[in-house]
Amino acid sequence: MPYNDYFECGTCGKGFPNGWRARENHCWSVGHCLPNFECDTCHRGFNTQNACIQHMGAMNHFAHECSVCGETWPTEEECIDHEADEHYYCASCDRWFQNANNVKMHRRSRAHLGQPLDCPFCQDPFTTATGVVHHLESGRCPRARGLSRDAIYKFVRARDPNGVVTKKLVGWEGSYEYEANENCWNGYCYECYICHREFKTLDSLNQHLKSPTHQQALYHCPNPNCRLDFKVLAGLFNHLDSESCGMMRFEQVQKEFVNIVSGARRIAF
């Protein structure tokens, strides 16, 4: 896309084919002003940002150009997203993919995530915030064995006074604890007395009862148009990671997780 070499004076509209320095000299010598807003490509001046953006959109004059179809975009991020969503192309790796899901998974791989997210206790690396939270909530961290689902909720709730992601549970003191014994044997299997799901062993039934399956939801999606409930924080992050409700981009979710863990600021998705 050829660039226009004419730079316009914001006051008199005169064009200078020799570039921006000639225009600056003109403005200084006659007391004129530079344009308030200027097209990225043809350097036409506008009085308002809206008028400038409308012009660039209509003329395809944004600064960032798709390497496949030539369509232009206001930011590099939007251009990269367009190349991936519409053309299944990763410009930074110069790779083509068969479908949108493949390129989406590629962009979420270690090749694009940069430094992995570390567990704040054992420092094990994970590729997503969901992975770190599940590691902690499931009790798999060797240095945080006593960290429970309830403890994580209280930690996050303290950083979320406005209830952006945590549910305000009046009178909540902790999750219920369930445990089965041999009385749950119904003659051919062990049966959950809450949902009536059947298990071959008593240990399997108790693992089921210790899971969040029958616990109260502690979190909700911060998107006011979604508000889906989640029983574990890992479920909420997985929901946000998937971008299914359009609340935020995947990369931003990972940054918000770091803010929560570090206590750098209150939660504000």
UniProtKB/TrEMBL annotation:
Residues of the C2H2-type domain: 88-117, 190-214
Entry annotated with the keyword Cell wall biogenesis/degradation: no
GO molecular function terms listed in the Swiss-Prot or TrEMBL record: DNA-binding transcription factor activity, RNA polymerase II-specific; RNA polymerase II transcription regulatory region sequence-specific DNA binding; zinc ion binding
Origin superkingdom: Eukaryota
GO-annotated cellular components: nucleus
PANTHER family: SI:CH73-221F6.1 (PTHR24409:SF418), ZINC FINGER PROTEIN 142 (PTHR24409)
Record-given protein name: C2H2-type domain-containing protein
Organism: Thyridium curvatum
